[in-house]
């Protein structure tokens, strides 16, 4: 199970462009093996509990909030905010901290960014621990935001489509894009909360009211919804299925990788993790029989900690 809560021994800010400044923190063992945690969303930000996936006696644990998310500034800004900006930021942070190679841990959107980063800088990655594989293919977005998850959560879906006029519901991501970028604050915030609530309502096998309450917070919802939608409307600035292409996987085939996937993950269904395993058979894939999408579900959390423990000495 996860390790006890700890506090960072160092926090800092890293200016990565004229516009964006990242918040980062370091906890655990100053002399330990470095690991970077790549959070989900995009736009989700980090949480103190994210430190607990790593043995603090073994790991030097680096967390940072991606552009526009969490404590990074300015918040919820879409300019200069693409997948490849975040890949460069991750590498810039590694250089800033004087780390030669590190372990990379990411779930959901964090798994997307982990794969993109590893494929861009394979010589800097010691291992990968991934959860809830998401590769931003059109088919994955269609399942969650158009038709698929809606059949399993019709009550939550009803709330999700409510802000969108019926005539625009044939493309929910596009319809939400208009409202999330509205000049009217009320329209924008209502859309942001509805978008965020849909994801929080579907993230666990057993729906968690505390997680849904997070979606009601103005600042979180605004950053989470606007940045997610911005990435999805732009297909992540990648070819459809790029992260699964053989020539991309060949770049990282030598990196040890453990993936943990909830069987009943509706946000990032198991089919994507299975597709990754097919093109990358060297990867270890664990499918958790009693879990949804969240990293905090007991079976998933246990396997994630076991994975980081197994890589602590390489």
Note down, in words, how this protein is organized.
This protein is of the alpha/beta class. It folds into 2 domains: about 10-135 and about 240-310, Rossmann fold; about 140-235, no CATH class. Helices cover about 40% and strands about 15% of the residues. The chain contains 12 helices and 8 strands. The protein has helices at about 85-95, 110-120, 140-145, 150, 155-160, 170-180, 185-200, 210-215, 220-235, 245-250, 270-280, 300-310; strands spanning about 10-15, 20-30, 35-40, 60-65, 100-105, 125-130, 255-260, 285-290. An 8-stranded mixed beta sheet has the order 1-2-4-3-5-6-7-8, sandwiched between helices. A hairpin with a 5-residue loop joins strand 1 (about 10-15) and strand 2 (about 20-30). Helix 5 packs antiparallel against helix 7, helix 6 (about 170-180) crosses helix 9 (about 220-235) and helix 7 packs across helix 9 (about 220-235). The radius of gyration is 18 Å and the shape is globular. The mean pLDDT is about 95.
Widest β-sheet, arrangement of strands: 1-2-4-3-5-6-7-8
User: How does the helix and strand content classify structurally?
Assistant: alpha/beta
Number of strands: 8
CATH architectural group of the largest domain: 3-Layer(aba) Sandwich
Q: Give the name of the CATH superfamily of the largest domain.
A: Alpha/Beta hydrolase fold, catalytic domain
Query: Mind telling me the C-alpha Rg?
Result: 18 Å
**Total domains:** 2
* Helix percentage: 25-40%
CATH domain class name of the largest domain: Alpha Beta
Give the termini separation: 21 Å
Strand content is 15-25%
Q: Stretches where pLDDT falls below 50 for ≥5 residues? A: none
Backbone shape: globular
Order of helices and strands: EEEEHEHEHHHHHHHHEHEH
């Amino acid at each position: 199970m996860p390790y006890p809560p700890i506090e960072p021994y160092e926090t800092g800010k890293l200016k990565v462009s004229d516009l964006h400044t990242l918040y980062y923190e370091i906890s655990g063992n100053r002399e330990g093996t470095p690991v970077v945690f790549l959070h989900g969303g995009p736009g989700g930000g980090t949480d103190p509990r994210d430190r607990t996936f790593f043995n603090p006696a073994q790991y030097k644990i680096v967390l940072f909030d991606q552009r526009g998310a969490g404590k990074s500034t300015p918040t919820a800004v879409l300019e200069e905010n693409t997948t490849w900006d975040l890949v460069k930021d991750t590498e810039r942070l590694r250089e800033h901290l004087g780390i030669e190679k590190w372990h990379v841990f990411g779930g959901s959107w964090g798994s997307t960014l982990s794969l993109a980063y590893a494929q861009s800088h394979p010589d800097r990655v010691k291992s990968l621990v991934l959860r809830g594989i998401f590769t931003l293919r059109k088919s994955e977005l269609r399942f969650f935001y158009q038709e698929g998850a809606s059949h399993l959560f019709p009550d939550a879906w009803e709330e999700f489509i409510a802000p969108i006029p019926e005539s625009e519901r044939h493309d929910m991501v596009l319809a939400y894009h208009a409202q999330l970028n509205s000049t009217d604050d009320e329209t924008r915030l209502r859309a942001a909360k509805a978008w965020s609530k849909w994801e929080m309502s579907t993230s666990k096998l057993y729906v968690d009211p505390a997680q849904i309450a997070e979606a009601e917070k103005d600042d979180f919802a605004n950053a989470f919804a606007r940045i997610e939608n911005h990435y999805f409307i732009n297909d992540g600035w990648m070819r459809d299925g790029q992260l699964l292409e053989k020539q991309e996987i060949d770049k990282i085939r030598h990196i040890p990788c453990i993936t943990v996937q909830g069987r009943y993950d509706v946000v990032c269904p198991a089919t994507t993790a299975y597709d990754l395993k097919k093109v990358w058979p060297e990867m270890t894939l664990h499918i958790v029989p009693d879990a949804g999408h969240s990293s905090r579900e007991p079976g998933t959390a246990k396997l994630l900690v076991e994975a980081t423990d197994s890589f602590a000495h390489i």
